[in-house]
Every structure is written in C-alpha cells, then in structure tokens.
Design a protein that fits this description.
Layout lengths: L11 H17 L2 H12 L10 H14 L4 H12 L10 H19 L24 E6 L3 E13 L4 E8 L10 H5 L18 E3 L31 E3 L8 H14 L22
Parallel strand pairs: 4-5
Antiparallel strand pairs: 1-2, 2-3, 3-4
Helix pairs in contact: 1-2, 1-3, 3-4, 4-5
Length: 283
C-alpha cells in the first residue's frame, strides 16, 4: 500500500479504513463485531500490530471521531505509538521526526473523551438469506458442464451495500451432482482462473444490486450440507455483480475450465503463469 505523507490518513490502508468502517458497522450493528470483520478483511491482527500499524492507527482515529471507540483498538494504537512500532518503518530522519509529532497528537486525541456516539447506519439487506454455510449449490453451464460450489459464509459487498453468500468452487467434473458422501470429500479449487485469464480468484459473493439480486432459481440446491474444509472460508472475495463486464456464468465457466479439461489436475494447482518452485502456498 502507498504512503504519501506523515499524517495518519496519508496512507492507503488508513484512508480506506476511514471510508470503509461505517459500512462494517451498518453490516454488523455492533462495534466489536465490525472491528473483528474489518481486521479480518484487511489481514490485521491484535497480536501482531506491528505488521499493520497504519491500519490500527487509522481505525482508532476513525472510531474515536464517530464515538465508536473499541477499547481493544485504543489499547493497540497506544501500544503502537508508545513502543515505536510505527516509527520503526520511517527511515528518513526528517519524515520520522514529523511522524513522531503526528503520533504524539494522535495519542493525546485518543486519550481525550470521544464525541457522543453517532447513530448506527441502517443494516444492509441480506440476499439469498436461506443459503446455509456448508451447503452445496450448483449451476449448469454451457458445454454440458456443471459448476459445483460450497457456501462458506456471508460477506459484504461494499459497493452495493448488501450482504450475500460467499462460495468456493469445488473440484467436480461430472454433469451429475455429487452425492452427500462425495460432497463431503470435495476439495475446493485454490486458484481458479478469472475470465480475463490474467488473474485468479478465491471466494465469490453471490450478490447483485439491491433492486436486482440474483435469482435463487439460477442455482441447483440438492439439499446437501457438509462441513467446511480447513481454510475454505478464508481469503479475499469478489462479488459476481461488480466484476467488470463478466456475468456469473463467465466467471464460473472460466474458474472450472482447467479441471474439466484435465480431471487429474490437483485442486491446489497453481495457475500456468506461476513456476512450480513457488509451491502451493495460500488459501
């Protein structure tokens, strides 16, 4: 992420947090839950604050200004300032001095009484709300192929201000649907290739515009619910309705194509443009 000054919000992470946090509050209607959700999505953790100092400082100031200060965030921000965890990243002496002055002001502000809490924004509507975590859903595709997915949770689509089920594509190369026993053993595809053929994706969130949510009849639901595999619910996500010019079937067809063409391909196979030496790390 980019940094263009010594102010707290002169950083991409902090600036994004400032604009995003209210969405998480609208989604969860709870400050602690919103904090947990935004930290998860930004890859930040309370026990390793030194890895995301800009995030925590930006979140602390954002929460303070709205009167929604989570005590855990306050403690983390003060720890970052007092222990020099953020200053350690500033090698330019002049900029480090300016940053130190900025952080001193931030510390004083955070320890002052915050403003009265603002009202929470209205909660976002949930689309496809009856989909269950662990449920197997499928979609018939052109070319007599079937895309099998597993619901791994619900995620927000900030651009649309809605929530919906997040799914992972499964390794399945039969037109027929899997049985419950087969579904329980399915592996999720780690690196499905996007329709643009130059990137991969992980979770897909089945959300559409508020006035045009995805039709439940687009999906086959055989009534199978199975446990999630390890890390299956982790990773970045993209709404199928906000991904450029692509439609649901474009994304699904491109994502499963490699495995239909080569059924013996591992579910963890890296995309063709990655060298084998890079391994299969990641979710």
């Amino acid at each position: 992420m980019g940094t263009w000054g010594t102010g707290v919000f002169a950083d991409d992470d902090a600036a994004d947090v400032r604009s995003d946090f209210e969405h998480y509050v609208a989604d969860t209607q709870d400050i602690a839950q919103a904090t947990n959700a935004i930290a998860l999505d930004y890859g930040a953790a309370f026990d390793i604050p030194q890895e995301h100092t800009a995030f925590w400082l930006g979140l602390a100031l954002t929460q303070w200004r709205k009167g929604w200060l989570d005590p855990r965030v306050l403690t983390t921000a003060i720890h970052i300032i007092d222990d020099g965890l953020d200053l350690a990243k500033w090698r330019n002496g002049n900029e480090a001095t300016k940053r130190a002055r900025e952080l001193k002001k931030v510390r004083a502000q955070l320890q002052a009484p915050p403003p009265s809490p603002r009202p929470f924004p209205k909660p976002w509507p949930i689309q496809l709300p009856d989909f269950q975590v662990g449920e197997i859903v499928a979609r018939r595709l052109p070319g007599n192929r079937t895309a099998v997915m597993k619901v791994v949770g619900f995620r927000r689509t900030t651009a649309l201000k809605v929530r919906g089920p997040a799914v992972r594509l499964q390794k399945w190369v039969s037109v027929a649907l899997p049985t419950p026993a087969e579904a329980e053993k399915l592996e999720y595809l780690r690196w499905p290739i996007a329709p643009n053929k130059v990137q991969t994706f992980r979770l897909l969130v089945l959300t559409g515009a508020r006035r045009a949510p995805l039709d439940p009849d687009l999906f086959i639901r055989p009534g199978i619910v199975v446990p999630l595999q390890q890390n299956e619910d982790k990773g970045g996500y993209t709404s199928v309705s906000t991904w450029g010019p692509y439609q649901l079937d474009d994304i699904l067809a491109s994502g499963v194509a490699r495995w239909w063409e080569d059924p013996g391909l591992s579910a963890t196979a890296l995309p063709p443009w990655c060298s084998k030496s890079e391994g299969n790390a990641g979710n």
